[in-house]
Design goal:
This protein has helices at residues 32-38, 55-71, 73-77, 88-104, and strands spanning 2-8, 22-28, 111-112. It has one domain. By secondary structure, it is an alpha+beta fold.
Length: 113
């Protein structure tokens, strides 16, 4: 099982750019425990909690989560799923991608399904 994380930027009212900036990422549930730990204090629902979270709040939550991952690497690597689907490294890559996407698309929100 997995989540789909996706979003589309709002078009710029001046130039129209932005509505074509898609984010579409499939993320395995196997790393859900890592996300719950890293996003604690921002949401109790882990990755689900980012669904339509206001832009600035989501950026702050993701910045915190990336920092948590970097500070707690050993603890989180111990949670790597034994079946090989997902890992500390792939989860950190996802968080960085989501954060970067929000930084590049002011006002946009993530959707998680």
């Amino acid at each position: 099982m997995s989540w789909w994380v996706y979003a589309k930027g709002d078009p710029c009212p001046h130039c129209g750019r932005g509505d074509d900036l898609d984010l579409d990422r499939n993320v395995t549930y196997n790393v859900g425990g890592m996300f719950r730990l890293a996003l604690d204090g921002y949401t109790e629902d882990g990755l689900w909690g980012l669904h339509k979270m206001p832009h600035e709040q989501a950026r702050e939550a993701l910045a915190h989560a990336v920092g948590y991952f970097l500070e707690h690497r050993s603890e989180l690597e111990a949670m790597n799923p034994s079946n090989g689907w997902g890992s500390y490294s792939s989860a950190l890559e996802d968080l960085r991608m989501f954060r970067s996407w929000l930084e590049d698309n002011p006002g946009a929100v993530l959707e998680v399904s």
